[in-house]
Specification:
alpha+beta, 14-stranded mixed β-sheet, 3-stranded antiparallel β-sheet, 32% helix
Length: 574
């Protein structure tokens, strides 16, 4: 069982000083212990409570390759959301937490976990019986200088941490970037809750201090770490979805993958998602990344520890889908050796990995060009890295001036959809049963759904296909979702729908109605659209993660109003 150490804490718990969110968090932990809390807290409206318990936070490290023999020190563990993730990956975890109240909650949450020690109190006062292979420092470093703009307090703190590492050990530090693109767009700065404070170097004071990429690199080097690597986490390190590195920077298709969120969208003066195209096109993404995870080690090997060294992680890209839940959550990583691994984040999802493998095999048997997959022990899917752009990117590039080729591409996509499965009689259409119940439609018309497939592979669309323009080759990947006894045109609808979602000015270049008529979807387009909303609600767990999704919307009208307000204020000052 987890062991709680209170020798280094001089606190007494005063209930009056504990926030309502922390009290409720403790109450949930006392009642449920170590579970996935998102379904339980889905009706809660307190952001801090959501943040204390949500599984989405695990994305900062759930993809990382810790050696199974690693012994880890986690600093500032909060209520233990990352602690459980670390315990599942490593031989032993020592979690420290300044708050005695929260430390007790961690010990209670993981009372049945045998590889965990929890220490309450100030880290600077603590003594440990061992040194560590890894130190995990998430969201802590920025506060160690009490808002100082000078680098010395942060350097000294990292030097202190080096003394807790084994020679050759590794530090993982997650920090905000004060020049993050979201902050240029007007998002409130996390240490002051005022827009633009970070880029103004906290001229009006702050409780913490975030760093630019150069500042963070200089601090790490000045602290004596011999090697380091930057990971760029989006939308941030708190609720990560995408992790990039200098060896694998984002392409212009990032808009199709990223869902930004904002604690307070009312201060925005620009849309972050729309700016990534230009940021990437001008090769300045590392400067504007919202958050960093900095991995650094000492590379010093002593005789005592000569059997151990923590090398820099071989992963150069990761995508985590924690929001899909325990059964569908995956981490997809690209490694330096050109191998791609896709692994379930939870044991409950291993069957989904096997099912994905079976889907790929079935499509291959039907003559559909797919990326080669291998199923490794532990239900890990292995694929080669394909250095081609997606078909989606290619089609966006030709939409304006080469519409004949665009239509040819859509015809090919539809041919592959029809080829992917056997057809069944129209009366076996499973979507028909939803009409009038889940889906509204004009009952005076009998919609023509076209061919009905025994298996409709929903991701035979440009977003899930690589394309080699030189050889004119398609290669489909990530074919996870299947609807049985569904219209082939529903899959084609998805291909067209998302092409228009992610292509600026698409309607201007090629009116969508033209494609709806071409493929005979006049009566079914709105039916398919409603079905897609049901699917997205299901797969993204929008009800479960309402606290997150209600913060993802960007109001263009409000952005314009904010801009005009700034203009008016500027004129008044003249």
């Amino acid at each position: 069982m987890a062991i709680l150490h209170t020798d280094f804490s001089n606190q007494t718990i005063n209930e009056d000083s504990i926030s309502a969110a922390d009290k409720k968090t403790y109450s949930y932990i006392s009642q449920y212990g170590d579970i996935h809390y998102d379904p339980v807290i889905s009706e809660e409206t307190d952001w801090q409570l959501f943040f204390n318990l949500t599984e989405l936070r695990k994305g900062v490290l759930s993809w990382y390759d810790f050696p199974p023999q690693a012994r880890v020190l986690e600093i500032g563990a909060g209520f233990g959301t990352l602690t459980g993730c670390l315990c599942g990956k490593c031989a032993h975890v020592t979690a420290t937490e300044r708050s005695l109240y929260r430390a007790r909650a961690i010990a209670r949450r993981y009372e049945d976990v045998s590889n965990l020690d929890v220490y309450a109190g100030d880290l600077l006062d603590m003594e440990f019986p061992e040194r560590f292979d890894y130190i995990v420092l998430v969201g802590i470093l920025e506060r160690m200088g009490k808002g100082s703009r000078e680098p010395e307090p942060y350097i000294e703190y990292l030097q202190f941490l080096q003394g807790l590492l084994k020679p050759g050990g590794c530090l993982l530090a997650a920090v905000e970037n004060r020049f993050g693109l979201r902050y240029f767009c007007g998002e409130e700065e996390p240490h002051t809750h005022r827009p633009f404070d970070g880029m103004n170097r906290y001229a009006w004071g702050a409780s913490g201090h975030s760093f630019s990429r150069r500042e963070m690199a200089d601090i790490v080097q000045a602290a004596g770490f011999c090697d380091h690597k930057f990971y760029y986490l989006l939308p941030d390190y708190k609720l990560p979805q995408l992790i990039y590195t200098d060896a694998c920077l984002p392409d212009k298709g990032i808009r199709e993958k990223l869902i930004p969120y904002y604690r307070n969208p009312d201060t925005l003066i620009a849309c972050e998602r729309e700016l990534y195209y230009d940021v990437i096109d001008n090769d300045v993404f590392p400067f504007f990344a919202n958050s960093f995870l900095v991995e650094c080690n000492t590379k010093e090997i002593s005789k005592k520890y000569e059997a151990w060294q923590a090398p820099l992680c071989p992963i150069i890209y990761a995508a985590v889908s924690t929001d899909r839940g325990a059964e569908r959550g995956f981490a997809t990583v690209i490694r330096t050796d050109g191998v791609v691994h896709k692994k379930s984040l939870y044991e409950a999802g291993q069957h989904s990995a096997r099912k994905l493998y079976e889907n790929i095999a079935d499509l291959h048997a039907h003559g559909i060009p797919v990326v080669e997959h291998r199923l490794l022990p532990g239900d890990i899917l292995e694929m080669p890295f394909i250095p081609w752009p997606t078909l989606s990117d290619y089609m966006k590039g030709i939409m304006r001036d080469r519409q004949d080729e665009l239509l040819e591409m859509l015809d090919r996509i539809y041919e592959y959809i029809l080829q992917s499965s056997e057809q069944i009689p129209a009366e076996e259409n499973a979507l028909s049963s939803k009409l009038g119940a889940d889906i509204a439609f004009d009952s005076s018309k009998k919609p023509d759904f076209g061919p009905i497939l025994e298996k409709a592979y929903m991701e035979l669309i440009p977003l899930n296909c690589f394309y080699n323009a030189k050889t004119d080759e398609f290669l489909y990947f990530d074919q996870e979702f299947v609807r049985e006894h569904y219209p082939a045109k529903y899959v084609l609808f998805r291909a067209i729908h998302y092409m228009y979602c992610f292509t600026p000015n698409a309607e201007q270049y090629c009116p969508k109605e033209k494609l709806i008529v071409k493929y005979g979807m006049e009566d079914t387009w709105q039916i398919f659209f409603q079905e897609e909303q049901i699917f997205l609600e299901e797969v993204r767990n929008k009800g479960r993660y309402s606290q997150f999704y209600q913060r993802t919307g960007v109001d263009q009208g409000r952005i314009y109003a904010n801009i005009m307000h700034l203009k008016a204020v500027g004129r008044q000052g003249k």
